[in-house]
């Protein structure tokens, strides 16, 4: 049965707020995972650019002692070469964590706000935290 106009508006705000929070949680998780996994690339490229004479040319002791322009260029190239496999690894880690925590099941369709008596998806499946239950090791990360 459809809800009244005001009730529908309030439930719509609730559904939009919940979906926005789940979206922000996913973005935060992506940011944390990618930052941790890509940290070696970030460090290598940073030092390469910082010590190259035609980019930043830092006066730091390690730049004068260990890194000249050729080694700085090598660091920059190495950083960009190792970036591709690390991006793939970070995405695989994010997908497996998201599947394990079942984050995408937290998104709710708009029909929850429009009609009365429609149960929330997480309620139908046994609670908010599905990850606390037993985990099936036979389930693949890529479905």
TrEMBL record:
Cellular compartment(s): Membrane
Gene Ontology MF: a single term: PDZ domain binding
Tagged with keyword Amino-acid biosynthesis: no
Keyword field: Membrane, Transmembrane, Transmembrane helix
Transmembrane feature ranges: 30-49, 70-94
Presence of the UniProt keyword Membrane in the record: yes
InterPro entries noted in UniProt: TMEM88
Principal location class: membrane
Membrane topology per record: Multi-pass membrane protein
Family per record: Belongs to the TMEM88 family.
Name the record gives this protein: TMM88 protein
């Amino acid at each position: 049965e459809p809800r009244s106009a005001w009730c529908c508006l309030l439930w719509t705000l609730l559904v939009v707020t919940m979906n926005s929070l789940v979206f922000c949680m996913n973005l935060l998780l992506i940011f944390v995972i990618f930052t941790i996994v890509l940290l070696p690339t970030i460090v290598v490229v940073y030092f390469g650019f910082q010590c190259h004479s035609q980019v930043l040319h830092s006066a730091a002791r390690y730049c004068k002692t260990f890194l000249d322009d050729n080694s700085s260029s090598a660091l920059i190239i190495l950083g960009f070469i190792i970036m591709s496999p690390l991006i793939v690894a970070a995405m695989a880690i994010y997908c497996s964590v998201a599947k394990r925590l079942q984050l995408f099941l937290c998104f709710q369709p708009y029909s929850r706000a429009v009609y009365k008596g429609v149960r929330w998806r997480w309620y139908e499946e046994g609670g908010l935290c599905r990850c606390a239950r037993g985990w099936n090791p036979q389930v693949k990360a890529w479905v």
